[in-house]
Amino acid sequence: MGGVAIRLRAWSEASALDRALASAERDVASFEQAASVFRPDSFISQLNRAQGRALPASDQLVAIVSEAVRLAHESSGAFDPTVGPLVRLWRDAARAERVPTAPELAAARAHVGWQHVAVSPRPPTIALRGDAQLDLGAIAEGYLADRLAGLLRAEGIARARIDVGGDLLMFDDRVAKEPFRIGIRHPSAEGLLGELELDSGAVATSGCYERFAVVGGKPRCHVIDPRSGQPVEGTLSATVVAPSGIDADALATALLVLGAQPGLELVSRLPGIDALVVTRSPTGDGIVLAASAGLTARFTLRAKLP
Ligand code: ADP
Ligand code: MG
Q1: What atom in ligand 1 is closest to the CA of residue 80?
Q2: Three-class SS of residue 298?
Q3: Which of 2, 49, 191, 203 is surrounded by the most beta carbons within 10 Å?
Q4: Model confidence, pTM
Q5: How far apart are CA 36 and CA 291, in angstroms?
Q6: pLDDT along the chain (306 residues), means of 10
Q7: Is the CB of 87 inside a 6 Å radius of any atom of ligand 1?
Q8: Which of 87, 163, 223 to mutate to test the pocket of ligand 1 (most atoms within 8 A of CB)?
C-alpha cells in the first residue's frame, strides 16, 4: 500500500516459508488492487466516486470495512476511516504553508463521519452516503499483518514475527514458547523508550513524530482529531497491544487522538487490549508515560526520564 516495507522472520523449513511467501505476495497485491486509494480503478476508488450508490463488494472488503466501522464506533469516532477530506485539507494547507480557514474546515468536516458507511453482508455491498470518502490506509498495515499470519500458519509455520511498515504481529504455536522482545521507539529523542515482552499478539504504534508538516510556524501531526478537524496536539505516541493487527493499528490511531486518560479508559473496556500513551509534560521539556496494568507488567523502561 504505497510502498510499505514488509519484514518477516519465521522459524520453519525453507520450503514452507517459500510457499507462504508466494501466497503472501499474491495476497498483498490483490488487497492493494482492491483497497488502494492511489489506484483509480480500485474498488475503494470506485466506491469514492459512486455518489451514494451501493457497490457489490468482495467478502474480504466487507470484512475489513465492517471491522473499520466497528472500531470507529468503539472509539467514539477518534479512529474514523472517512477522515480523508480533513487529512487532504491539512496536507494541501501545509504545502501552501498556511492554516485552513474556518469555512474550509467546515466544508471538509461536513463529509467526514463513519456513520455514512453502510456495509451489508448478504448480498455483500458497501455504500457511502453524504459524499463520504473511505480510506483504509490507517489500518492496512495491521490488516496485512493478520493476513500474513494466517498464510504462514496455513503452511504449518509455528513461530513468526511479522513487521508491516512498523506494525508488528507475533505468534508462537509451539509447546515450548519463547517470548518476543519488542523495542518501542522514543517519541521525542533518539533510541528506545523501552521494551515489551510478548508471547503472541500485535503491537502498533502511532506517533506524531513521523509525518508532520509545518503549518503556521508549528509542526502539525499527520493524525487528525475527526471530532474537531484539528491535528492531534499533546499526545506524542500511542502503542497498542491487541490480539489482531487490525485492532492494534486502528486503536493506536484512536489513542493518539484521545490522549492518555480517555484512551486508557477506552482500553479498560476492551478485553485483551493494552496500551501505552506518551504525552508531552505540562512544562514542555519532558514526557509522561501512562499505561494499562497489562502493559506495565510487560514493559521495561530503557530511556532516562527527566
Ligand atoms: P502511520 O500509518 O502513519 O504509521 P497511522 O496508522 O496512525 O500511522 O495512520 C495515519 C494515517 O491515517 C494518516 O496519514 C491519515 O491518512 C489517516 N488518519 C489521520 N487521522 C486519522 C483518524 N483520526 N482516523 C483514521 N485515520 C486517520
Ligand atoms: Mg497504521
Answers
A1: 24
A2: coil
A3: 203
A4: 0.95
A5: 34
A6: 83 92 92 94 97 96 97 98 95 87 96 97 95 94 96 96 97 96 93 96 89 68 94 94 98 98 98 97 89 98 87
A7: yes
A8: 223
Which grid cell is 303?
530511556
pLDDT digits (tens, 9 = 90+) for 3-33: 789 999 999 989 999 999 999 999 999 999 9
Query: What's the CA-to-centroid distance between 66 and ligand 2, angstroms?
Result: 17
Ligand 1, atom 19, lies closest to the CA of 223
Q: Which ligand is nearest to the CA of 228?
A: 1
Q: At what angle do helices 245-258 and 260-268 cross, to 10 degrees?
A: 140
φ, ψ of residue 185 to 5 degrees: the values are -70, 145
Does the Cβ of 213 fall within 6 Å of ligand 1? Answer: no
Residue with cell 471530532: 227
- Per residue in 89-132, pLDDT tens? 998 888 888 889 999 999 999 999 999 999 999 999 999 998 99
Q: Are 80 and 113 spatial neighbours (Cβ–Cβ below 8 Å)?
A: yes
Position 292 scores a pLDDT of 98
> Which among 290, 258, 251 is positioned nearest to 272, based on CA atoms?
251
The x, y and z cell numbers of residue 252, run together, are 493506536
Å from CA of 165 to ligand 2 middle: 8
The grid coordinates of residue 85 equal 477530506
